[in-house]
Amino acid sequence: MSKLQAKAGRGIRRIDLAYVELASSEVARDINRDVVLELIRTKQPVARADLSRLSGLQPSTVSLIAEQLLREKWIVEGAAARRPRGRRPTLLSLNDDLVILVTDIRPKQAIVAVVDLNGRFLARESIPLVSDPERGVSNVIDCMMRLQARHPEKSFEGIGVSLPGRVDPVTQQLIMAPNLKQWTDYDIKQAIERRIPLQVELDNAANACMLSELWYGRMDGVRNAVLVTISEGIGAAILANGQMVAGKSGLAGEFGHIPIDPSGPICGCGRVGCWEMYASSRAALRYYGEMIPDSPVATIQDLLNMAEDGDKNAIAALNKQAAYLGQGLRLVTTALSPEVILFTGDLTSSWSRFGPVVEAELNGQMLAGTPPRLMTTTDGELSRLRGAGALVLQRHSGYHRSTHTATNESSISKRRDRAIAVAAAGRR
Q1: For residue 253, which of 171, 176, 142 has the smallest C-alpha distance?
Q2: CATH architecture for residues 222-376
Q3: pLDDT tens across 326-372, in order?
């Protein structure tokens, strides 16, 4: 540490006592546990001695944590490592037999899957979604139970649900879903837990995708980012100073419902000219329909396929969507100044064609400084499912099978961030 840094470190910082968490021995143990678990995930298979070296923890501390993780079935012991001399240590890895039921709910369909701790999919099934929430959730539960029955040899840790709307982090209720209006205020969590005896975790699809990127290590070194989901609507998740931002009642990030044209079409949220009415997949289909009124194009995938085949009208419609996507990003960059903007969803399957349109539109209108780096998630639609799994991993691996409140949810996130940072340093 430099003299300047040391001097700066001796200042007095304002502490908000409403949210402060004292550094008790229990908190220290939780932090150490998260660090060890994160290192096992990123370095597996790995010996206890290597975990001690990478984390800076005493070997005895690492051994105690490893034994706890083994008892809780988060990790397993594997083969012994080959060493030139001395005792051959047993290697630790994540437990492949511990899995999660996940679902990505969208306005017209739900995708249900079984995913393991490493993000690998063991099964996946799509079902149509009805507008009535009770019937819709019941159908999703039926699908979950079918997939669960196919894997009797696995231990199911929990259920993760990705939703096209905002979820209150305290009540775990869907409170805003303009494209799934009838589902707001329906108790999805309780409905699932009544029939499947597993803890259910819910969150907005964009937040789930951002958490997936963090959990699986693609955001190493990035502390300020925005993730934009492009589907029937436009959603966003915010990472600021290394922390996920939920905002009051979990409503932060609703850039898709900021009006950009007071004379535009009416949005599902009730306002006029919202960004998602111009930059979503539905907008691209509308643009094409305006050019070809008798168009048989029913889905965004049809439109993307036509563009790849060289259909000029399809290309024009998607170019228009991409341009509006770039224009709306000016709001994001001006408000948050992210280092990286990540995209996931329909348009990203043809990002090499339409991504440059988004980038050019954004770069030409920067307020100041250099534009953020634009990236797509690596696994397209699967990122929402992996994100639903990451919800369970984040919330259960910190306070194992605990009941969450807004305050301890924040502390779990902070410990999680520290664990990721330590593991990233180990990778470098």
Answers
A1: 176
A2: 2-Layer Sandwich (3.30)
A3: 999 999 999 999 999 999 989 999 999 999 999 999 998 777 778 99
Using an 8 Å Cβ cutoff, are 113 and 385 in contact?
A: yes
For 242, phi then psi, to 5°, come to 80, 5
Return d(Cα 286, Cα 102) in angstroms, integer. Answer: 31
pTM of the complete model: 0.81
Tell me how far apart the alpha carbons of residues 177 and 188 are, in angstroms, rounded to a whole number. 13
Query: Cα dist. 341→138, 229, 281, 321, 375 in Å?
Result: 36, 11, 19, 17, 6
User: Selecting from 3.30.70.20, 3.40.640.10, 3.20.20.70, 3.30.420.40, what CATH number does the domain 98-211+390-427 have?
Assistant: 3.30.420.40
Q: The domain at 29-94 falls in which architecture? A: Orthogonal Bundle (1.10)
Domain coordinates in residue numbering, the chain: 29-94, 98-211+390-427, 222-376
* CA R_g for the chain: 23
Identity of residue 405:
T
Confirm if 284 and 304 have CB atoms less than 8 A apart: no
